[in-house]
Sequence to fold (449 residues):
Amino acid sequence: MEGPTVRFLGGVREIGGNKILIEDGPDRVLFDFGPSFSPRMEEYYVDYLQPRSTCPAKDLLEFDLLPRIPGLYSKEALGDSDLAYVPPEVSAIFVSHAHADHAGHLRLVDPEIPVYVGEGTRTLLDAISSSTTMKYGEHPWRVFQDATPVRVGRIEVVPYPVDHSIPFAYGFLIRTSGGTLAYTGDFRQHGPRAPDTHRFFEAVAREGVDGLIIEGTRAGPDPRRNLTEEGVRASVDRVLDGHRALALACTYPRDVDRLSTLHAAAVAADRSLVVSVRTAHLLTQVAPRLPPGTVPIPGRSAGIEVYARRKLKSYVWERPFLEQALPADEVSRDGRRYLLALDFQHFPELIDLRPETGSPYIHSMSEPFSEDDVSDHVMHNWLDHFGLVFHQMHASGHASGAELLELIRQTRARTVFPIHTEHPEAFETAGPTVRPPELGKAYPVGTTR
Ligand SMILES: [Zn+2]
Fold:
């Protein structure tokens, strides 16, 4: 095909795993590169059965769990895969945000290919890789600035911040020699950075793009309740107001907005938010990249403490927090003073904490997709065992189906490619321009071809 094209190598009829390849003559730019959350992956790799660290790309290519792109993967990741190693043929990778389904495959990439991220995302990826088993590999990292064009050969990319359930998320305007695209990344418009999302879509409308590549996580049937971030705050306030015992909460580990919301609610109820050492590390790293006072910093801000989980050894990155950390007996003795953020995998701490029967457990995450979700079942077993009262309250990281259709209308894009969705057909009411992409097929950019 002559002229620039766009191909969708992941995120097609699935949530997560976006891999969008834009080619313009010799220039090839990939947008996002992470594993999808689709059941396809779990057909082969589940729990501790994972690709070998000596040749992860080979092990994923075996089951078509990665696209066969020559000149993308590192020699090490491919090992002796039948996709032979060749020097880089991909000019650059742009990462919209630090969620695993968008950045989690970077460690497979040839270390000579530059990776473009926002400054805050760079900080987040560092904080995550220094405190978890998640690794992103060595790359020439390039930090882009808001609304400042970046040129990669014939392709020009303009990053715009958007509101999402992790800070420093971006959408992109992408100008090629034959037309213009917009790619939303993941976004919402009911969180604290909603004005960013509006400014991005205004820029997309002004540009008059040929193609709009839009995420659709919540398109189609979605019976799950959704609040705004302010709605979550009001709901947490109501729960804390009625209780004089230890309160517990759980949320996504990188949802900095939610941690700030929980902190503000705790302080208003004369409590401190108690977080894990890992969360303390993350907040400390990202706070300098966010407006002062918006993120609580353990050891510096009032109303935030660190929980000392029972552990045999500590890592170097944990040590700055351990001296002041509160052990279980201290938290449970004075439970009324604390809102403890306790991750699911740390539930055995409840055996030491022994919260009073009737203590609230605030589940500030998505409700399970299916009725037979195993961890949901296990979570409720624990809550029942300790007599904890479950409260569901969450603000999604994604715009609703109705909002997506309205935003599409405002952009007046000539073609709409719904991705990162299990229900591309839900976009059909947006007009005849909707084109649910086929995996791997090349679509021309622009209207003249
Ligand atoms: Zn995301």
